[in-house]
Amino acid sequence: MSAAAAALRLDVMTVRPYTRQLLMVLGAMGVLVVIGPPAVGLMAGAVFAAVVAAYPFAVEDKNDLGTLHASLPVQRGTLVLARYVLSLLTYLVATVAATVLAVAWSTTGDAVVTAGELGLVATAGFVTYALLVGIQLPVYYAVGYTRGRLLGYVPIMLLSAGGAALGASGEVDLGGLVEPAERHPGLVVGLAVLGGATALVLSALASWRLDRRRTARVSAGARQAG
């Protein structure tokens, strides 16, 4: 097993005891698909991934796993990369689940989800995910989950509140949004994916530097205390 795979497995095992809570969050995201325009609910994948991304940091702070991570024969950059990979995999799984639910729910009601709407919202969802996680993870690497959770969750709460309000109002005209994008779909999707990927790469680099700085600060404090 490669170091990156081992680091990813460690994070998965870290959050595994919280599966029930995560399933409850996923269920809440599913409600968003049902109560509003089905395609809008696909944004729930971005929100769910951002919530899950915080769990390894919360568990690490709660159980003081920083010492364990520091003693592992794995480079810090690999551990940082594993956190981003876990969040991306979570986003993909949640988005696929939300897409299936949105399509299934649309067949039982009047709100028909078109391929164009799904494509537009999926693209917007990826950008949203990249921005949420891109902001959230560097904060946790800089100051830890306990001190940074409020700042890390602010974008998630704003997005959730906005999505719930739009879904409840029923005034989201996805058709009007899709029509301009359909004129140049390749360009729109390409630019969005490139922008989201760039945000994630820059965020990962910032997290790597912040993690090194925080680790060095903690190590220096431990030496002084000793």
UniProtKB/TrEMBL annotation:
Q: Name one Pfam family in it.
A: ABC2_membrane_5
Q: Which UniProt keywords apply?
A: Membrane, Transmembrane, Transmembrane helix
Position of the signal peptide: none
List membrane-spanning regions. Answer: 42-59, 80-106, 118-143, 150-168, 188-208
| InterPro entries, sorted | ABC2_memb-like
Name of this chain's protein: ABC-2 transporter permease
Q: What is the lineage of its organism?
A: Bacteria, Bacillati, Actinomycetota, Actinomycetes, Micrococcales
